[in-house]
Amino acid sequence: MKYEREIWQTAGHIEAVILVDGEIRGTWRYVIKGRNIAFTCYLFERLSASDKKRVKMEAGRLAGFLEKELQAVYFE
User: Fold this and answer.
1) Cβ atoms of 12 and 32 closer than 8 Å
2) Is the per-residue pLDDT at 1 higher than 80?
3) Pairing relation of β-strands 23-33 and 36-43?
4) What is the pLDDT at residue 60?
5) The pTM is what?
6) Angle formed at CA 61 by CA 30 and CA 14, multiple of 5 degrees
7) CA-closest candidate to residue 27, choices 39, 41, 13
């Protein structure tokens, strides 16, 4: 797998991945502080503005599912 080391961590931890059109484009994590949630996306390659918009939309959907307010989506 191309990004095996970035996805599979020690002790069996598996990073959440960003899929765009069926291709792995990065990983992501979130931090919850009170009612707020912020996502950080660790990109393996550049995303277009429209793909970033799609990622932000999905982050918003997940925030709603978790009953949190989306604070921010960061791309690194």
Assistant:
1) no
2) no
3) antiparallel
4) 98
5) 0.88
6) 40
7) 41
* 38 neighbors 71 (Cβ within 8 angstroms): yes
Q: Which two tokens stand for residue 24?
A: 């792995």
Provide the edge-to-edge strand list for the sheet that holds 36-43: 16-20, 23-33, 36-43, 69-75
Amino acid at 57: M
**Where do we find the tokens 């599912």?**
65
Tokens of 70: 């989306």
CA distance 64 to 9: 28
Q: Are 36 and 69 in contact (CB under 8 A)?
A: yes
Q: List pLDDT tens digits, range 4-49.
A: 888 988 888 899 999 999 999 999 999 999 999 999 999 999 999 9
- Residues contacting 57, CB < 8 A, separation 6+: none
